[in-house]
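seq:
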Amino acid sequence: MILVLLFISQINASGYVETRPYLTWNDSTYFTGYNRGWLELKTADSDHGLQVALDLIVPYDTSTLNYAADNTSISRLALWLGDERTRIIVGKQSLYWGVGRVFRPLDTFNRTNYFEPGYERAGYNALLGYFSLGDLTDIRILAMPDGDINRTLIGTRVGTNFAGNDIGMTIMHRASEHQTIIGGEIAGELAVGYWGEMSYTRNDTIDYTKISVGLDYTFPLTIYAMIEYYFDGSGVDDPAYYDYMMIIEGQRQTLAQHYLYASIGLFNNPFIRPSINSITNLDDRGTIIIPQLSYAIMENAEVTVGLSYTLGSTESEFRNITPYRGAVYVWGKVYF
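struct:
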């Protein structure tokens, strides 16, 4: 009993609960939304430990306890061994590779969420090794199983710092698809912050390149601006050839070749944060504009009011991947 109490005392618990109502419109208006709860447990020991995260999303039109019990997902369940210089992590864990703020050519694990880049994502079953070779250089080695050893994704990343720039080189391979991904990244600051990453993918039937580059800067009055350009060589430049089923089935995240993401916000007040975000498909000129205002009503609680509106022709990608033309929302979130 004493050992159990000692173990529990070393666990750090954190998370949040939120509600997200939407009022959407196209030919008619529609009210929808969901509640979400995220609970994360992590042991306090730095040399070994366990991380568990439970995620529950309940749509507004569902309120039964059976639904909650059946749809609580385990988004993190990982064990780690070793200190910050040499660590092995095994289990369901978050994987974020690359330096892009919105588009990450080297992140082959997570779907792009340009509506909300920071949205909490589920983890992936993987074995990850982290090895420090000094204050500025490290190596990551990844094995991500997929039922068959030939479908296992194997990856390695070497990162270092040179002349004030964080630089990384990555290679990944999956034998079953004869797929190899090679890429690199750089991030630094010289008057403005900058970053860029590139990946080259080759398999039996196709090869293509993806590139993401961006800049950010904080102006007087704490006005923050960011811009990021994305090129996807596997996309098409003519809307007539868009295959929306590939997005629905999860085979693709975007359809075109050229995208531009821009964001500007005023952050001089820690309680009120207005911002405007936009993403433009440069091939079909479709644009999504997302102005919003976040207000911290307490230290651990905030309310966000916003609008998402799509501009462009009826053939544009963004007009066809969402069931609505526009949406207004008022979100509430409490952290613990």
